[in-house]
Amino acid sequence: MAASDSPSAALRRRDLCSRGIRLAGKMRSDVVDLLDTYVERQGLDASASVAAVEGVPVAAVERWDEQTGTQRLLENLAAYRAFRALLAQMLEEQREQLGEADAALGRALAAVLLQVSAFAYHLEELLRLESRGPPSEEGARPPPPPHLGLFERKLRGLGVLRELAQWAVRSARDLRQLAKPSPGSSSAPSPAESP
Amino acid sequence: DSHTQYERVGADVTMKCGSMDWDAAVTWTANGTDIDESHLNGSYLILKNVDLTQSGQYSCYEGSSWHLKYQTCLRVGTPPKEPVLMCRSNNYPKGFYCSWHLPTPTYIPNSFNISVIHGTREMVCEKDAFPKNRCHVRYLQLFSTVKYKVTLTVTNALGKNSTTLTFDEVAIVKPDPPESVVAKPVPNNPRRLEVSWQNPSSWPDPESFPLKFFLRYRPLILDQWQHVELSDGTSHTITDAYAGKEYIIQVAAKDNDIGTWSDWSVAVHATPWTEEPKHLTTEAQITETTSASTSSFMPPPTTKICDKGAVVGSGAVAVCWTAGLVLAAYGVLFI
């Protein structure tokens, strides 16, 4: 963690955090719009309760304020890598299901997928700055979804997007914590102490 | 033998004189005053269609010995109506508080019980010392999509009632209004007012959870407010104030990402800087003002009609004018 304490590294971290916060904000806004489109096009009820979806990273976290900078980055990166795969699956299913019929929904999904990929890359950059480097992606793919009927797939998609919207809010908060001057990130107990 | 007896408004109440027989000779008193025999059926006291004024201490004395045989405190009241419950987080992300009240009084003691469930987990709502009908919950998790379910049950001797609120973590976030709002004129600038304020002290971490602000201002003599939304910073300079007119200014706050706007802050008043007043009559002042080449009032740079909907939620600073306001402004000059 010594390298991350140099003034230039601190500036770079702050710069990456600011840009990351803006990315997260835009992503959240687009996911919220996508949720509206998705609900409408898939004929769902916006207030439908969706049980926890298998394979979807849950944004909810306990003792959030006690997390170290590295923990935040690792958890965020794992989440967005998972969302990247989940959204790709949703896009594929949507194309199979509707073909050309709903290009607008497909485009919106693809746009959000692009932002999720970009954000994952951004997080990898931040982790490199922490002298940690991002973990490899082996084994990070979510299990293939169980064979679901059309309606169950739509509900699952709703669950994915809702959780992604939560993550986008959390990520902005995480990056603001990271951007705070030293006590939060570099005084972590020890670099080895991550989950 | 003394106890308390609760009865509903409008009920018929029969009081027995302890273990005395029905045909025993007794005297009943209410708050020390003898009760007329017409209210008696044997030794029983009959009160029909009781009302609130009949609450009090009822005592029964044996006829000849005046021994006190029975005493009861009658409390006339009503069962509780559905309580009004409100939950709010003004200190996100620490937690939230819930407060409640009854829409109409019951006139007898009530007890309140509140339960807070998050998914399958029961959470503790710690009662506040003050105000009494309030408790607070600490968030154990953040960024959860699982809703909170808060049930308040109010019970008294005559019945019970309850109400339930269901909400998610972000829906109830509403900061307190900004504090220490100050508005000052800017020297040598007849159309400017400098406004500054502070984050509400109840908001625990404005650095990680920044607030955005909404400023509204108008001259006292006009009804229409102008609005400015500010994404960051705790100050703003108004640059289009009418010269010499007293303004009223308020600020509201909202978390950058979630929840709703706070109530408006306490209003502050300020008047833009003006030149030293000259000793002229009113008529001469008007003549002077209208003929001056550097008139202190200038038509606004744009008279674009602004879509009201664009004011709230936009990240950019927006100032709204209406054509009517411009016309009114010319009138103001001659007041």
Notable characteristics:
heterodimer, A: 195 residues, mainly alpha, Growth Hormone, Chain: A, disordered C terminus, B: 335 residues, mainly beta, Immunoglobulin-like, 3 domains, five-stranded mixed sheet, four-stranded antiparallel sheet, 2 helices, 24 strands
Tertiary shape of chain A:
elongated
Share of helix among residues of chain B?
A: under 10%
CATH topology description of the largest domain in chain B? Immunoglobulin-like
Poorly predicted segments of chain A: 184-195
Radius of gyration of chain A: 18 Å
The average pLDDT score of chain A comes to: 83
Helix content of chain A: 55-70%
Give the neighbour order of strands across the main sheet of chain B.
Answer: 1-8-7-3-4
CATH class of chain A: Mainly Alpha
Q: What does the oligomeric state look like here?
A: heterodimer
Strand content of chain A: under 5%
In the CATH scheme, the class of the largest domain in chain B would be: Mainly Beta
In terms of per-residue confidence, which ranges of chain B show pLDDT below 50 for 5 or more consecutive residues? 287-324
The N- and C-terminal alpha carbons of chain A lie at a distance of: 17 Å
Based on the structure given, which CATH architecture of chain A is correct?
Up-down Bundle
Question: What's the number of extended β-strand segments of chain B?
Answer: 24
CATH architecture of the largest domain in chain B, by name, is Sandwich
Domain Fibronectin type-III (chain B): 177-277
Keywords (chain B): Cell membrane, Disulfide bond, Glycoprotein, GPI-anchor, Immunoglobulin domain, Lipoprotein, Membrane, Receptor, Repeat, Signal, Transmembrane, Transmembrane helix
Organism (chain B): Sula dactylatra (Masked booby)
Subcellular location (chain B): Cell membrane
Topology diagram in text:
The complex is a heterodimer of chains A (195) and B (335).
Chain A (H helix, E strand, L loop, with lengths): L6 H35 L19 E2 L6 H30 L4 H27 L20 H30 L16
Chain B lengths: L1 E7 L4 E3 L10 E5 L2 E2 L5 E2 L2 E4 L8 E7 L5 E10 L6 E5 L6 E7 L9 E8 L2 E3 L2 E2 L6 E5 L2 E2 L5 E9 L2 E9 L11 E8 L2 E10 L12 E9 L6 E5 L4 E4 L8 E9 L12 E3 L11 H10 L31 H11 L2
Parallel strand pairs in B: 1-8
Antiparallel strand pairs in B: 2-6, 3-4, 3-7, 5-6, 7-8, 9-10, 10-14, 11-12, 11-16, 13-14, 16-17, 18-19, 19-22, 20-21, 20-23, 23-24
